[in-house]
Amino acid sequence: MADSSSFRTQANALFRKNLTFQGRNFRTNLRLILFPIVLCLLLVLLQAIINNELDKPSNKCGCTCIDQDGDGQCERVCGIQYSDLDQVATCSIPNPPEWPPMLQLPAPQFRAVRTGFDSFGDLPDGSCRATNSCPATVLITGSNQSLGDSLGRNMFPSSSTFNSSNGLTGAVLGSASKTDSSNFLDSAFLSSLPIYYVQSQCGPNSTFSISVPIASLDLEKEIRCVQGQLLWRNSSSDINNELYAGYRKGNREEKINEILAGYDFLNSNINNYNVTVWYNSTYKNDTGNGPLGIVRVSRSINLVSNAFLQVLLGPSTQMLFDFVKEMPKPETTLRLDFSSLLGPLFFTWVILQLFPIVLTALVYEKQQNLRIMMKMHGLGDGPYWIISYAYFLAISLVYMFCFVAFGSAVGLKFFTLNDYSIQFVFYFIYVNLQISMAFLVATFFSNVKTVAVVGYITVFATGLLGGFFFQFFLQDKSFPRVWIVVMELYPGFSLYGGLYEFSQYAFTGNYMGTDGMRWRDISDSNNEMRHVLIIMVLEWLIVFFAAYYVDQAVTSGSGARKSPLFFLGKFKKKRSTSFRRPSLQRQGSKVYVQLEKPDVIQEAKRVEQSLLGQEMSHAIVCDNLKKVYPGRDGNPEKFAVKGLSLALSQGECFGMLGPNGAGKTSFINMMIGLVKPSSGTAYVQGLDIRNNMDQIYANMGVCPQHDLLWETLTGREHLLFYGRLKNLKGSTLTQAVEESLKSVNLFNGGVADKQAGKYSGGMKRRLSVAISLIGDPKVVYMDEPSTGLDPASRNNLWNVIKRAKQNRAIILTTHSMEEAEHLCDRLGIFVDGSLQCVGNPKELKGRYGGSYVFAMTTSSNHETDVENLVKGLSPNANRIYQISGTQKFELPKQAIKIADVFRAVENAKSRFQVQAWGLADTTLEDVFIKVAREAQPFDVLS
Ligand SMILES: *[C@@H]1O[C@H](CO)[C@@H](O)[C@H](O)[C@H]1NC(C)=O
Ligand SMILES: *[C@@H]1O[C@H](CO)[C@@H](O)[C@H](O)[C@H]1NC(C)=O
Ligand SMILES: *[C@@H]1O[C@H](CO)[C@@H](O)[C@H](O)[C@H]1NC(C)=O
Ligand SMILES: *[C@@H]1O[C@H](CO)[C@@H](O)[C@H](O)[C@H]1NC(C)=O
Ligand SMILES: *[C@@H]1O[C@H](CO)[C@@H](O)[C@H](O)[C@H]1NC(C)=O
Questions:
Q1: Burial of 473: CB neighbours in 10 Å, binned 0-12, 13-18, 19+
Q2: Strand ranges in 272-413 using DSSP code E only, listed in sequence order
Q3: Which of 190-194, 614-618, 782-786 has the lowest mean pLDDT?
């Protein structure tokens, strides 16, 4: 008896089969690999178009042609002075312009006024808002109010000290515009808002214009006076509260009270200058995705320092703060990494694409019952899982490698800027999660078409939802992170989240000319990658075990489902594999109820003896096997098999005959482990089918009623696969496969190397038989092996089975009496869930036949003559058929001599015309019909 094959052999067999299978799907694979390539190329193309657009002169620093050296030829010179406003951002700036330092002023309509009961009484009246003439308020406090007041008096110049004819020197300038991220161009001069100069009191004619040269343009800029109002507060917390209350909330403008600045002079005195400054940093342009704007705070510090100096040394002393200027910069090019922007969406599709592929492959094997078929030939669940998993993992990794390699090769920043080790870890974890997920989902489906549709819808929906829904939350930094994490529990979103982070890092890296994501960035609080990785690892482990559990316990994907607590079995004591000795009480209770069938009772006795250990040579022993299907939808329970006892020895072929629906298939399904018996059991080679199915499979072959074959594998590949599963190796394997192919007539003419999908029905049948016999199993079940075969192939097949039965036990179901008679040593007629008779074909014919059938055809007016003739031969004759002159009679064998019959017929011929006559022995078919009719008089054959 062969041992169950080792993990390595099973793995090897399955792996080679999968490789061949994959190789066959060349077209699909090509499409699979082309998809990311096409998407990458599309991105490259779009990127090229965008780069082309960005490289247009209007997006580059302006240039012009000037004759510099006077030789009549003009040279091309570029620079900020030749650029328009759109172009300047990219110019090299060797000498950045100087800008007067600005205060961040509240816009006139938002400046603090007396509004409600909660505001301070010394604020100006709200009526100034109508004329845009509200003063800008500065709040001060400190431990010495008289010092504070004198500092405040010195902060803003009065109208008498500022003379606009001298330009802007000495003026305290401010703007309500929002700042940019650099100060090459001060937004105060570019925006349409006026520039203000703050004075302690505005005189008449306080509005005038100046012209400001910016690049090649001269901008006309309006300059307006604004009164700077200083208000003393008793403590810094008062200031704080007032600032807080004045903050713009929603759109309710009447509640807004914006303050220019706040100063707390603390314990300052003449010898000690100690100050705290409040400033508003929200006034900066952070609408775009780029770096944030600078904060206008330096001027407010200078103001108060200057005031202190003047208190100290008198009004003629001045601490001047003329200009601010950026450091010089070289020419830059505008770059927009388009691939990083569209990347998350496209790449989510690319990577998710593997999901339906794994899913359909798994469901295909389930739909075609190939998984069960493999299991019946000894492939354990463990190896199946591990190998399939490893196999899909390998495929996914190869695919991902191609994808990243190609993307890098065409230069997509998404790949080249981010650290490859992070990318590897991310993709590796994700594909593992994805495969586990596919295993889990596959257990709930059994139809390839459905699952393919579901799979692809998932892919596209996930991409779109990610791009137009999930990304929205990712970008919204105020959205609670917890909910993002909750959404990322869906693997599609965690994939999207990770890709999004890659794209963000690549985008800014490209824009700023720095690196993309590095390991140190993982700990960034804004980087979602850390969550994503943790979620995916945990989910992978959970889903993996859940999938295995569901596969084993909940669905019947791999044959008989195990109990939901099947894994506890491993901890229980290993059950003995020897025969269970039946208890003596059981004997004699229910076994002998079918008293009228001595042969069936005889068989039951044999079983009892075998179980008691008196006769151990039986290959198969069925002990009162029963199957009851529970009642559904109000129908009563269905008794498919009502107690079947049978003992088969090695070298015996047992034929099961029976009308459709008699329970033959239920019986076979129990024997091959597809369904669990409701009660009773069977022993195959001494192993109990309830507990030791896995070992039984190693010595069992099955030829199922419907051919379970891979459409794309050839006959030879099927046999190689199953041969390997049965522990055949090297030359033994090749030889066995070759012999097997020859014996079923599939060897010649290259048939063996044609794909099974192209076989005719007969060829598939023969291949199935060959599969059931390969590896020399000791027990073989064949479910109608010769259906659909032409007579020549059928004879061929019979010879194969005859030769094969010499050293094994075969149980065969069939509807062909000829086949049963030809192949089987014993027959059992199975009707309505129980055996009606057991015996070899001759015995049965003798027992149930026991008569000849005499047929005669005459003209209809001689029918009575024929009847008399027959009555003369035997008074017990029985007419079984009569129609327009043709009659058939049953003649008991004991009462008849054949010579008498001939004589009587000769005699009759002389009296009337006999058109035809015949005498036949009973056939097996007659026996079958008789038995079936007796057992089920009403519905089977009427
Ligand atoms: C407050 O400051 C003034 C100078 O401005 C000084 O003369 C006066 O002594 C200070 N008062 C206290 C209590 O320190
Ligand atoms: C402003 O300065 C100009 C010249 O520097 C002078 O002519 C004019 O009188 C000054 N105006 C005032 C109001 O001081
Ligand atoms: C600071 O600036 C923001 C935005 O410009 C504004 O909404 C807010 O009211 C300002 N806060 C104060 C206290 O002025
Ligand atoms: C400045 O003021 C703070 C807050 O009152 C105080 O803790 C600190 O000691 C002061 N510094 C000096 C040099 O007086
Ligand atoms: C902010 O900057 C963007 C471009 O960087 C510009 O289009 C927008 O007008 C700016 N907003 C303000 C309020 O200055």
A1: middle
A2: 276-278
A3: 614-618
Closest-CA residue, ligand 1 atom 11, reads: 144
Round to whole Å and give the CA distance between 207 and 184: 27
**Smallest-distance ligand from the CA of 265:** 4
Distance separating alpha carbons of residues 486 and 492, to the nearest angstrom: 12
- Integer Cα distance of 536 and 534 in angstroms: 5
- pLDDT tens digits for 310-338? 999 988 888 888 888 888 888 777 667 77
Which is more confidently placed, 440 or 743? Answer: 440
What percent of the chain has pLDDT above 70? 88
Bridge partners for 781 per DSSP? 702, 811
* pTM metric for this prediction: 0.60
Which residues does 825 contact at the CB level (< 8 Å), separation at least 6? 652, 653, 654, 840
Q: Which ligand is nearest to the CA of 205?
A: 2
For 458-474, write each residue's pLDDT tens digit.
999 999 999 888 888 88
| For range 848-863, the mean pLDDT | 81
Give the model confidence (pLDDT) of 232-269 as tens digits: 999 999 898 888 877 766 555 556 788 999 999 999 99
**Domains of the chain from N-terminus onward:** 62-91 (no CATH), 98-325 (no CATH), 348-554 (no CATH), 591-839 (3.40.50.300), 850-921 (3.30.70)
| Of 113, 247, 257, 260, best ligand 3 pocket probe by most atoms within 8 Å of the beta carbon | 247
Q: Is the CB of 302 under 6 A from ligand 5?
A: no
Instruction: Show the 3-state SS of 725-746.
Output: HCCCCHHHHHHHHHHHHHHCCC
Kindly list the distances between the CA atom of residue 312 and the CA atoms of 102, 269, 319, 487, 875, in Å, as whole numbers in the listed order: 25, 10, 12, 62, 153
145 lines ligand 1 (CB under 6 A): no
Q: What is the DSSP letter of 272?
A: B
Closest ligand to Cα 268: 4
| Ligand 2 lining (C-beta closer than 6 Å) | 163, 165-166
Q: In the prediction, which pLDDT does 215 show?
A: 59
Average pLDDT value for residue range 733-753:
82
The CA 193 to ligand 3 mean position distance, Å, reads 17
Q: How far apart are CA 396 and CA 440, in angstroms?
A: 17
How far apart (Å, rounded) are the C-alpha atoms in residues 762 and 793? Answer: 8
